[in-house]
Sequence to fold (519 residues):
Amino acid sequence: MSIGVPTVVEDTAGAAARSVEATWDHVDALVVQVGQVEPLEQVTPVDVGELNAQVELNAQVELLGLGATTTSAATSALMPAMMPATAAAALPATSSATRPRSFYGWWMLGLAMLAAIATSPGQTFGVSIFNEPLRLEMQLTHGQLALAYMIGTLLGAIPITWFGRMMDRHGIRRMTLVILVAFSAACWVVATASSWWTLVLGFTLLRMLGPGALSLMSANILPFWFNRRLGMVEGMRQTAMAVAMAIIPAINLWLVTQFGWRGGYVILGLSVLGLWPLYWCLLRNRPSDVRQRVDGLRPVVGGAAVSAGDSDDPLGPEFTLRQALRTAVFWAALLNGALYSLIHTGVFFCLLPILAEQGLDAKYGAWMLMVFAISLAVHQMAGGWLADRVAPGIQMIVGQGLFAVGLGLLVLAGGGTEVLVAGGVMGAAQGVFFAASNPIWARYFGLPHLGAIRGFLMSFHVALSSIGPLVVGWSHDVTGDFGLVLSCFAALPLLLAAGLLWVRPPQAAIETISGGRIG
Fold:
């Protein structure tokens, strides 16, 4: 039994009706494939009112200028109503728009930002508030405390690559839940430290699980959900750290004042543990877990799970860590990025003595850090937008140039205004540089081994950050001032920036350090 399209429908949207007729051959092919669909001659009459509504909707969509793609999508919506139930169930359900109404990736952005903030109990800006009351109670010298922190940071950097490999094997969700519990326990270890050795253990766990493992999870969430706008969302994610730098020290100071340093760390640990139910409920490994696709742009098969290989990795390359280590772009981006860990940790750890040497009191140090954080947040957002439109090598070179200028201003600063400008320029440098460098790990090396690759990167950064204060302090002890080490620091970004000329996709020109190629 066949049906004809009513005249009123043809008058409203004749083009849609002709499109329906043109798809009968496609329907017949689907019927043969499914093998469970009744012959088309046996279709039941369709409700004319419902059909009119569907075709009117299609006509309105066509008036918006969405063309054949939308027309065929609306036609697909008509076809199930004109077919038996078995045939309708067999047909793919496609949306009339190319983007899902609510893309789950935006929830992942919020969770990635929150995870970055949650690393604060192990970050230098978070630990530093506790240093003095901790040192006095445990009767440690400044050198003993600094040595414990350096050893803890170095030891904590070693297992981070392993955490990345576990992420590749078990998924971000499972590893994040484990790390949140372990990081909470690390805060408790610090709070109960009774000797220098237990303090070293506490610092090791804090640095390994906070700035190391949890930061790694935060950094790796978004590449599984975004591709075309990865630079923009990475810039948004990084603003979380700027916010943390601005507010966490004040919160920690209040905790120390109200509950003491031990009570403060207990509360921080409970706060981290309190995030566990949120991540258990909301965090997902990849878009296929919620039947969506990367960027939320393409339709999915209704009622069926989407395979990871079909939807979750449009980025192409699948480098292992060993293969990535053989590319020039890997080492150019790694060494230039690690320079920020070395220099910023060293400068900020010794910031007050540096300013005192220039005749400035401690308030300028607090103001400089505030200006740095604000500038960092602004330029991370702007840099993230640029990272989706500008070659990353160019943007990273600009960042290194700004870094050299900011450090030079700090060397030459003769007053508070120059110090604040230096802080603003240094914040801009970090924002511009990392907004460009963070997306390239997924875009250039792919997702299958991203945990191991970024784990190695994180280990290198954390380890190098541990020696920054030692380098600055040793230079001062030898020369009697900070001028020489700051001048050398200002020159290093310009020297290493030359390596950024090799920053281009390794799948297009897979260069090894020796000039060969990866097969």
The chain has a mean pLDDT of 77.
